Amino acid sequence: MDLDTIIQVLDSTIRLSTPLLLACLAGLFSERAGIFDIGLEGKMLFSAFFSAAIAFTTGSVWLGLLAGMVASIALSAIHGLASITFRGNQLISGVALNFLASGLTVLVAQDWFRQGGRTPTLEGGARFEAITLPFAESLRGVPVLGPIYADLISGHSILVYVAFAMVPLTWWVLFRTRFGLRLRAVGEAPEAVDTAGVSVVGLRFAAVAICGALCGLAGAYLATGLQAGFVKEMTAGRGYIALAALIFAKWRPWYALVACLLFGLLQAIALRYQNIDLGAFVVPVQFMDALPYILTVVILAGFVGKAIPPRAGGEPYVKER
Amino acid sequence: MTFFTKTLGTVAALALTAGAVLADPALIYDLGGKFDKSFNEAAFNGAERFASETGGTYKDIEIQSEAQREQALRRFAEAGFNPIVTTGFAIANIMGEVAKDYPETKFVNVDGWLPEVPPNVLLINFQEHQGSYLVGMMAAMASKSGTIGFIGGMDIPLIRHFGCGYAQGAKAVNPDVKIIANMTGTTPTAWNDPVKGSELAKSQISQGADVIYAAAGGTGVGVLQTAADENILSIGVDSNQNHLHPGKVLTSMLKRVDVAVFEAMSAGADLETGKFMTLGLAEDGVGYAMDDNNAPLVSEEMKTAVDAARQQIIDGSLNVVSYYENDSCPALQF
């Protein structure tokens, strides 16, 4: 394998990891605050559709991005209403939202565009273009580092850089700010937060809203960054892989980056090499596709350290009377 | 009031008898969905043509999960629709079972295979390898790098059948041509994952491919998009997809599902069943698409060669090996 091939596989890894990473960080905020969110998939799908639809009608990808985020936050608000205000079951609410998104996007798309549940193809300013970082072309000649900078680091759409910048930002917000401390506390011991006079409901709603915004970025990246339009069910299970990555990362931002890059790399390798011939035996592509889930099960079974979810996760908070 | 109820009763009775005498056909799409710009949409177009040319009406349904297949079949059969046309190989088995319970109703399936065909079932198959052979020739002639790509949807024998014909056609033009073949996945989501389609196309482009044939349903939308973005040629499938990116889509391998559906619906209750029907180049069941969008891409030389091969396949002097014959392909390793 030469350097070019390695760079191409890693380049593909970055593109495939970005939606996973955004969705994974979204889940991280929500679950750290004690709200399980199965609905990452549905929110991404919702945002993918609305970002593509609005980007197409206005011709501006930024308005599309905004619409996608608003749509995704709206779903988050429903999830919050059901599971925080009315103390419903968080898993059921999440599953319901996934179904809602899967059906509603196609229905609305058919009503608006009459193209059978998809948006028309986006062109020009309605898509996120690849950004060429400064000096990318002039540095290409430098051995090893040149191609890495010019081909691997440069040449992605802005949302990719935003996604990667979100990792240190998430870490800083969660572990270095007062808001982050309270957010984590609300996922571990909400009664303590309540005793201190801080609103549990408010904090949880804030966390769920951040989750919606990040899922919105992920969905918009799929529809307007990677693709040029919305196709039904285009998230294709990425929300669930992001959940697996979240458990794999043990609910930590930097681990989440590693987990998402790993899962992205596995996908990229599976796409590049259908069957990997290791001489003695052949690794089938199906095994590579299943590997993220297998790894998550291994982690959950406790073979590689223990994955302990936030203690109050999944529990609606009931104030003592 | 009495008059009103009487009228209503008469209308209802009329409607019922009309339903019994002149049964409407019904159409059940596969999981890819009615508007996949490809296979199922071709079926829909055939049904629409039936409706506009004969003035008849038909009922159709898009199923959302495997479990709905039997439900939809039984609902249509109970309601007296005849014939019931279904698309996709996956419904064939359950259709064979349901058909036994409704001997008066005729069932038609496109793409399916059954070991024993019940007397009221018609299975329509296409010689996709023949059509794919022709577009494979065109791909190899249009390629400047000598490397071409094939992207399949779900990894099933049918899709390998497409890929196999394509590879044979390409090798016939240029024995040294390199063919990169990828499948999107092994689950039904592989029909609807344009992001993965794009990544596969990018990966094939980086390996030198400059013409890519996508036989992947909705995933193909991503393949064609990336090919257009990266300024290489692509080949569409099933329906004519040349218009999706004018001047960037070399051609489309046509599979005239629309003709099959139209014929079946027009025949109505007189449809001949209890057999397999195979549509190939000779019956114009498969072919390649030519229109204004791709006219500048297809040279005279290309057309002559492809049309000559088409004639040879029809009169039997050229044999395109089918993947089904012994579950392997002489020209391509999957």
From TrEMBL, chain A:
<protein>
    <submittedName>
        <fullName>ABC transporter permease</fullName>
    </submittedName>
</protein>
<dbReference type="Pfam" id="PF02653">
    <property type="entry name" value="BPD_transp_2"/>
</dbReference>
<feature type="transmembrane region" description="Helical">
    <location>
        <begin position="158"/>
        <end position="175"/>
    </location>
</feature>
<feature type="transmembrane region" description="Helical">
    <location>
        <begin position="90"/>
        <end position="109"/>
    </location>
</feature>
<keyword id="KW-0812">Transmembrane</keyword>
<feature type="transmembrane region" description="Helical">
    <location>
        <begin position="20"/>
        <end position="40"/>
    </location>
</feature>
<dbReference type="InterPro" id="IPR001851">
    <property type="entry name" value="ABC_transp_permease"/>
</dbReference>
<dbReference type="GO" id="GO:0005886">
    <property type="term" value="C:plasma membrane"/>
</dbReference>
<feature type="transmembrane region" description="Helical">
    <location>
        <begin position="205"/>
        <end position="231"/>
    </location>
</feature>
<keyword id="KW-1133">Transmembrane helix</keyword>
<dbReference type="GO" id="GO:0022857">
    <property type="term" value="F:transmembrane transporter activity"/>
</dbReference>
<keyword id="KW-0472">Membrane</keyword>
<keyword id="KW-1003">Cell membrane</keyword>
<feature type="transmembrane region" description="Helical">
    <location>
        <begin position="252"/>
        <end position="270"/>
    </location>
</feature>
<feature type="transmembrane region" description="Helical">
    <location>
        <begin position="52"/>
        <end position="78"/>
    </location>
</feature>
Automatic annotation (TrEMBL), chain B:
<feature type="domain" description="ABC transporter substrate-binding protein PnrA-like">
    <location>
        <begin position="35"/>
        <end position="315"/>
    </location>
</feature>
<dbReference type="InterPro" id="IPR050957">
    <property type="entry name" value="BMP_lipoprotein"/>
</dbReference>
<keyword id="KW-1003">Cell membrane</keyword>
<dbReference type="GO" id="GO:0005886">
    <property type="term" value="C:plasma membrane"/>
</dbReference>
<dbReference type="InterPro" id="IPR003760">
    <property type="entry name" value="PnrA-like"/>
</dbReference>
<keyword id="KW-0449">Lipoprotein</keyword>
<keyword id="KW-0732">Signal</keyword>
<keyword id="KW-0472">Membrane</keyword>
<protein>
    <submittedName>
        <fullName>BMP family ABC transporter substrate-binding protein</fullName>
    </submittedName>
</protein>
<dbReference type="InterPro" id="IPR028082">
    <property type="entry name" value="Peripla_BP_I"/>
</dbReference>
<comment type="similarity">
    <text>Belongs to the BMP lipoprotein family.</text>
</comment>
<feature type="signal peptide">
    <location>
        <begin position="1"/>
        <end position="23"/>
    </location>
</feature>
<dbReference type="Pfam" id="PF02608">
    <property type="entry name" value="Bmp"/>
</dbReference>
